[in-house]
Each structure stands twice: as C-alpha cells, then as structure tokens.
Structure to design on (599 residues):
C-alpha cells in the first residue's frame, strides 16, 4: 500500500502506512514530532503505529544535527572507498567499486564458532565527509574506517575501532596459494587450511558468483564444462604467495585529521565480512535462525522444550544465578566505567542479566514455516542497564531544555545537539547498550538452540540454514536523499534493499521473515511487528482467561492471567499490517508459532 500524507499542519509533513485514521492522541504525538525544527524531509509512520512515549511507536524520524534520546541505538561504522574486500573469485575489489556495481556478490564471513564460510553481500555508500581513524595491524596492513566500526575479536565478540588497544587479537583471515594454484583459507576454529572451493561449494552459492565489469573470472572448470560445479572440477587462482608470519594483533589506532565518504557491506546471514587486510569486521534486535529440523521431530516434545527454556533463561525481572564464561569474557565490560555515572553501581546486575529475556512483549518462540521447517526466534533488548542508561540521558536532555528555555510540545522530545559533550556521551552509551543487547540475544539463542538440539538430536550441534538479526528502537547515521542524517527508528526495522528483517505477529499468530525494498519515503524502513490495538490494562479488562486459551489454541505456552495483556486480540491483525507495507518489504518466509515463552 502506498503511504498517505496526513492532513495536519506541521513544519515537516507526516507520511503514514497505517491505512487507518489516527486517534486524537496519536495525531497530537505525530504533530509534536513533525513540528521540531531539525526534522529532515518528513516523518514516516509504519503500519503498526501506536501510542508511545514522546514519539509514536512505529515512527521513523530523520534529523539533522540533533537526536532525541528516547531512542535506543547504535551507529554503524564504515570504510573509505579504497578499502579492499576479497571475493570468492580469488580477487579483491575496492568497496566503492562494489557499491557502484549495484549487484550481489559472494564474500568470506565468519560464524560465531569461528568457521569461515561463503556468504552473499551487497555494498552501499553509508555516510559522507565522515571523521576517520587508521587501524594499524602487525602485518603492516592499515585500515581506515569510522571510529565506531566494529572489529571481530579472536573470541568472536566485537569492539569499535577507537576502543581497540595495542595487542588486541583480532579474528584472522589467512589465505595462501598451494603449489597447484589453489586458494587455501585457514579455518580459525581448527587451525587447518581448507581449499576455498570446498568452502564455496558447501555454501550452495556457486551459481550466484557474478562477473564484475572489467574483471575476468578466476574460477576455472577443469573439464571446461562451466556448468559442472562439482568441487573436484573447480580451481580458484589467487596470486598472494606471501607466507604470513603475523598474529593479527592491533599495533596502533590513530585519529586522522580529514574526512571522506564511507561505505559498508550488508551480509544478512552472518553480519560480518573479511577484509583483504586479513581481519573480519561487523556489518550493519530480534534474532531468528532457520534450523535443519522439521515439524515431525517436534511431535510430543514441545512442552518439555518449553519447560527447559523457562528453566534455562530467566524472564521478567529475574536474572541468572551464575554468570557463564561467555558473559564474563565479553570485552566491553572494561568500558563500563566510562558509562554514565548514574549506572556505575549496576555492573554486577548487568552481568547477571546478560542472557535473560525480560518482560512485556519480549518472547522466545519455536515456529514452523510453510514447508514445515523449524525456526527459532527471540526478541529481547538491553535489559535493566539499557533502560537505566536511557533514563539518565533523557533526564539530562530535559534539564538542558529547561536551562535554555526550550519550549517543547512534550518534554519527552528533549534532544541533544550534535557536537556537544552531552551528545557525545549519549552516543557512546547508546553504542555500548546496543552491543550489550546483541550479546544478550546471542547468549540466549545459544542456550535456546542447545535445548532444542538436546530434545531433537540428542545434543548434537547443528548448523543453522539461515540467520537473521535486526534492530528496532535505535538510531544510526545514514544517507537519505543524498544527505547525512540521524535516523531514529522507534519500533521500526531497517529495510534497505536486500536487508533481511523479522516482523513478528502476536503469540498465536503468524510472523514473517522479509527482505527490504529500499523505499526512500519510509527512509528504508518497515514495521517491527503487528502493533498494539489496545493498552495492556485495557486488554486485561476486555479479555478473559478463556479468551486467551481459545486464541492461543495449538501453541505450547503459558495460559494464565499473567500473560493476558499479550493476548493476540490486543494486537493488530498481522496480515493487514503486512498488506499495508507491500511497497516496503517482500516476504521471504511465513512462520507460525507452535511454542512461545513470554517474559
């Protein structure tokens, strides 16, 4: 459905994909935001739009030189145009040339277990005239990027470029050529060399390797039959014959005194990619994985799986009794002392809550797609520490507004101006909180996956067929309409061309895995779910326990008054929400919940 322009008088227009009139309070909230002097172009309302704090949930707000700290977010770092990215054709290309081609291509990526795989990617310009740092490695390679770009550490976690310290070990990407001319890749998880064509063949991506303008393909078919893509018939050439004698450690990080346009890749499956310099970096939150399991394997096991999930993953205000090694090893605990002084007594609680679900609309689900394949999905955030950080900065913004006599239509729209110490402190803490949220989901998903594997295959580890991660309630710098802006997605998901996303329905309804269409008028965004029809209190007054039991028929979940506010009837019909945003996303997979754990 195309958007409609709301008939209201504001500095910036409001475009809505809701396909229904807004209520009076919703209209007032939209007008308040669209009247701010720093709003860029227009405000976009997603199909799931509903009342929030300060700004509507389901709104996308692009701003110039200011940001409203009601959003929780992280900046996405990027690289200068000359940065070389190795493709599986045996050659390395400048990232700006990959962006100019406008095609998908195949890169090397690294899984959470340290295994190098082939993955599809796209490249794009992300920011203009951006401050930069130079990261120098012990192999004499230099990487010029934005200060906030995340580098993959040797333990699989990530750290921003400006926070890297001398001696920090990065996830290595070693390549060499054997005596027969085959490209070899060193697998970090096993320390063994593997022929690149085996990595490519096992990824099922061979037929999708493109030929770029002005470049020759360097994958050869031994029997000269180009459609015979058996591994034994392939030979990849790579002329890097240098023996590597370095350990992929950081030597120095140097701020630069100039700016450049920067670029990044989108890698939907693994969210990272290798650089020719020999390390892996992050690309630009819900999490979902497609498993190799089928519906038949779940028969008679759903209740046991649910009980094990509830025993292993704390919900609501609860926390873990013990802190597991993967949590204590997170390197960003060392940065805790740099967070807002108002949270300095919360590190112990934050450590115990990492790997916990929280409450409200947070969930863990087992779903089936239309081919009866099993998916695992969860939705959670930065827990108590993220909320406290947000409240600290919102308070600071409100106090600043009072000091300067800023007459805002709503105090919750208080903002920070770019370049001020308050803005920098807020942006730093946003990045930390978003990183915490991502690791929190990773820890839970690992436990969740192990539980399912225990019941279905006796604990044997399996490889996901597809992994999707997406943020919502966040802010980042992006280029829209050829200008650098801050984009705040409050209850919305980024949907640039080929971005994978997750749009869940209510428990008992359907959910969707989608790809973005890059709609410019929505600032390349889509909804983050169905959106509430009524408040939690109203839902408890309107519906009964019998209603909950009826509406969640066929779903293994709690059926008590403690989750009555999450009854499907309290949410908008997800099919209508999806129909309203057909110009924003395409559906990749339709999922039906069969198990749901609520916070």
């Amino acid at each position: 459905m195309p958007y409609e322009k709301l008939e209201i008088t504001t500095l910036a227009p409001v475009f809505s994909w809701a396909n229904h009139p807004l209520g009076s309070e919703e209209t007032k909230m939209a007008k308040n935001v669209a009247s701010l002097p720093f709003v860029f172009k227009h405000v976009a309302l997603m199909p799931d739009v509903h009342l929030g704090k300060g700004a509507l949930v389901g709104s996308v707000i692009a701003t110039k030189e200011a940001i409203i700290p009601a959003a929780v977010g992280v900046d996405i770092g990027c690289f200068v145009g000359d940065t070389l990215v190795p493709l599986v054709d045996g050659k390395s290309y400048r990232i700006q040339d990959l962006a100019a081609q406008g095609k998908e291509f195949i890169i090397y990526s690294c899984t959470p277990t340290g295994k190098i795989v082939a993955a599809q990617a796209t490249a794009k310009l992300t920011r203009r005239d951006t401050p930069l740092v130079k990261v120098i490695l012990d192999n004499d390679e230099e990487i010029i990027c934005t200060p906030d770009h995340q580098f993959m550490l040797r333990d699989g976690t990530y750290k921003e470029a400006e926070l890297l310290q001398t001696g920090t070990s990065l996830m290595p990407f070693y390549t060499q050529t054997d005596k027969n001319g085959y490209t070899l890749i060193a697998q970090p998880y096993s320390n063994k060399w593997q022929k690149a064509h085996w990595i490519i063949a096992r990824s099922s991506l061979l037929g999708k390797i493109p030929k770029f303008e002005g470049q020759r393909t360097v994958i050869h078919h031994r029997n000269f039959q180009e459609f015979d893509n058996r591994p034994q018939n392939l030979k990849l050439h790579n002329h890097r014959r240098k023996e590597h004698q370095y350990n992929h450690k950081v030597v120095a990080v140097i701020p630069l005194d100039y700016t450049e346009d920067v670029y990044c890749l989108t890698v939907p499956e693994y969210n990272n990619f290798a650089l020719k310099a020999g390390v892996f970096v992050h690309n630009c939150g819900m999490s979902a994985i497609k498993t190799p399991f089928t519906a038949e394997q779940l028969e008679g096991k759903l209740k046991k799986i649910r009980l094990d999930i509830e025993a292993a993953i704390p919900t609501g205000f609860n926390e873990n009794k013990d802190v597991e090694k993967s949590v204590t090893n997170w390197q960003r605990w060392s940065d805790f002392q740099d967070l807002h002084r108002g949270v300095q007594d919360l590190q112990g609680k934050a450590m115990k809550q990492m790997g916990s679900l929280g409450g409200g609309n947070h969930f863990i689900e087992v779903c089936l797609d239309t081919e009866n394949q099993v998916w695992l999905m969860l939705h959670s955030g930065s827990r108590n520490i993220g909320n406290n950080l947000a409240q600290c900065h919102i308070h600071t913004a409100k106090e600043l507004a009072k000091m300067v006599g800023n007459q805002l239509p709503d105090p919750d729209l208080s903002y920070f101006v770019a370049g001020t110490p308050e803005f920098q402190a807020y942006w730093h803490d946003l990045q930390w909180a978003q990183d915490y949220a991502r690791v929190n989901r990773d820890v839970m998903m690992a436990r969740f996956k192990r539980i399912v594997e225990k019941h279905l295959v006796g604990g044997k580890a399996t490889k996901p067929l597809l992994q999707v991660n997406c943020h919502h309630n966040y802010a980042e710098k992006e280029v829209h309409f050829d200008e650098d802006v801050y984009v705040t997605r409050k209850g919305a998901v980024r949907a640039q061309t080929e971005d994978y996303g997750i749009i869940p329905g209510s428990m008992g309804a359907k959910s969707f895995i989608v790809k973005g269409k890059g709609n410019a008028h929505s600032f390349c965004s889509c909804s983050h779910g169905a959106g509430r029809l009524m408040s939690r209190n109203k839902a408890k007054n309107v519906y009964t326990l019998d209603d909950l039991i009826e509406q969640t028929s066929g779903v293994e979940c709690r059926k008590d008054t403690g989750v009555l506010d999450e009854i499907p009837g309290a949410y908008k019909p997800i099919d209508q929400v999806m129909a309203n945003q057909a110009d924003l996303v395409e559906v990749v997979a339709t999922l039906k919940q069969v198990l749901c754990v609520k916070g």
The longest strand covers residues 116-137. Confidence is low (pLDDT under 50) at residues 71-76, 209-245. The chain has two domains: 79-282, 286-533+571-598.
